[in-house]
Amino acid sequence: MKREQTVRLKSGDKAQFIYTELRQEIVEGRLPPGARLIEEKLAARYGVSRTPIREALTLLEADGLIILQRNRGGVVRKYDKKEIYDIYDLRLLIEGYAARRAAQRITDADLIVLKGLLSEAEEVLDRAGRGWMPWNDGLRRLVENNVQFHRLIARAGANAFLEGLWERYTFLPFVYRTLQVYGEEGLKTSLRQHRMLIEAFVARDPDMAESIMRTHLYTGRHAILNAMSASPLSESQPTQEAEHDSTHSKL
Q1: Do 173 and 53 share a structural domain?
Q2: Structure-derived torsion over alpha carbons of residues 88, 98, 173, 90, reported in degrees to the nearest 10
Q3: Range of the domain at 146
Q4: 164-193, pLDDT tens digit by residue?
Q5: Helix, strand, or coil here: 6?
Q6: Considering the entire predicted model, what is its pTM?
């Protein structure tokens, strides 16, 4: 049965809603590199005029996620190895510094949340590894958990500009894909590094926290670049369009 829900929003709110949905689809790989975002089809999908669609696409372009095509919509951007390497260089600076600041400023309440997120992630990985839940479901939960973990570290540094930089350079398709290519053992290593980060925060050791975070990101960069050698994000992929999906809300 088709699920449609009418939501009355102002034009700007509609654009923000559409932007948020499309951004998530791009980040999670449901709209892969090279996928076409056609204004007419998106307008039909969301039951809106082209104006909020164009506004949403402009926001996606500002995020570096798509390339706009005049009067045609946009195409999900492809990243080559150098771009990914360079973006991870930025993440090393941003998140290394965020971890250093967090070690100096993090609250006991934030530490409790981080420990809870780690316990939850370990449980999900254990259940998925034993086949007690579908692997893809477990991976999706681990990705969400990982985002919350790293966002809290960025926020704990008590610098809104730093947190804004983190938001921009973390929600990218290849960052999501990093956890996909880790495999079970790689994910276990990632969670061990999360535990080490918490220990550095508890010890209020900024040097240790920064070093562990940088090692954590080096591991991720190595994994995604190796995966690209096998199946590059920069290579041509079958063109996919953002088709109408009846499970999405009409606005």
Answers
A1: no
A2: -30
A3: 81-230
A4: 888 887 767 766 778 778 889 999 999 999
A5: strand
A6: 0.77
